[in-house]
Structures are given as structure tokens and as C-alpha cells.
TrEMBL record:
Organism: Acinetobacter bohemicus
Regions crossing the membrane: 6-23
Annotated protein name in UniProt: Uncharacterized protein
Superkingdom, taxonomy of origin: Bacteria
Keywords assigned by UniProt, alphabetized: Membrane, Transmembrane, Transmembrane helix
Composition bias type Basic and acidic residues, residue spans: 58-70
Region Disordered, annotated ranges: 58-79
Length: 150
């Protein structure tokens, strides 16, 4: 009976050792998959940063184009500069744009980033350009006699 108990104990010990070995192998494989997933995630974040920078650059170019066009047609007939917190300014501009949705007045978001928000709203006698500048904390409202949404 003691011999059988020794064999049983040895068998149980071998099974336990085998279980720990396979659990260790499984953990190593999981760690490798996790490491690969982290690398893939970092690569995706880098690609998204590149895309965001490209979009911001395009928005800045478009905003510069808008300013140049506005300058070529003469200075705006009215401009108003107000100190405003960026998120409040952005919310006001989005609200103004949203109120005109579905009407005959065309609107276009020219730039939407963490640096600034610019929207042009066409009116009966030209357009209004609302600019929210995060760096200066300003809301600039400019009225122009033209409305170009190209």
C-alpha cells in the first residue's frame, strides 16, 4: 500500500509540474502577444499623429488662403475681437452654424483643431467669418462683402 501511495504521489507531482510548465509556456506566449499588440498600438498612434498633423496643416493652409482671398477683396467691412475661452468660443461658433442648418445660408468649417476653429457663414450681403484662436484666447468675428466657400 505504501508503494502504491509513493507512485500515486510521484504521479501527482509529475502532473503538477507539467501543469506549471504549460502555464508558464502559456504566460510567455501571452506576454509576447501583448508586446506585439503594444507595438502595433504605438505604430497606429504614430500614424494617427501624422494624419492629424497633416489635417491641421491643410486646415492652416486653407485658413491662410481664406485670409489672402479676404485681403484681395479688400478688408472686411467690420471686425470684432473679443477675449474668449477657446471651448466657449468654439461652442458659440458651432451653435451659430447649427442654427443655420437646413436654411438657404451656406456654412463651412474651415479649421477644426485644438489650435483653432474657423467657420464661414454666408449671409444675404456677404459672409461672417468666426475665428476661435486657442493660443490667444480670442474670438474674432469678421464680416465680408463676399462669400466664397470653395
Amino acid at each position: 500500500m505504501i508503494v502504491n501511495l509513493r507512485y500515486i504521489s510521484a504521479g501527482v507531482l509529475v502532473v503538477i509540474i507539467a501543469l506549471f510548465y504549460f502555464m508558464h509556456q502559456s504566460n510567455e506566449a501571452s506576454a509576447e502577444r501583448l508586446k506585439q499588440a503594444e507595438i502595433a498600438h504605438q505604430q497606429k498612434l504614430e500614424q494617427e499623429k501624422i494624419v492629424i498633423k497633416r489635417e491641421q496643416e491643410e486646415a492652416r493652409k486653407l485658413a491662410d488662403k481664406e485670409r489672402r482671398e479676404q485681403a484681395s477683396y479688400g478688408s472686411p467691412s467690420a471686425s470684432n475681437k473679443v477675449v474668449s475661452e477657446f471651448n466657449a468660443c468654439r461652442s458659440s461658433a458651432i451653435s451659430a452654424k447649427s442654427q443655420l442648418a437646413g436654411t438657404q445660408y451656406k456654412t463651412k468649417v474651415i479649421m477644426d483643431s485644438t489650435d483653432g476653429y474657423i467657420v464661414r457663414i454666408c449671409t444675404n450681403d456677404g459672409s461672417v467669418l468666426i475665428t476661435c484662436d486657442a493660443s490667444n484666447g480670442e474670438m474674432i468675428t469678421s464680416k465680408s462683402s463676399i462669400c466664397s466657400l470653395d
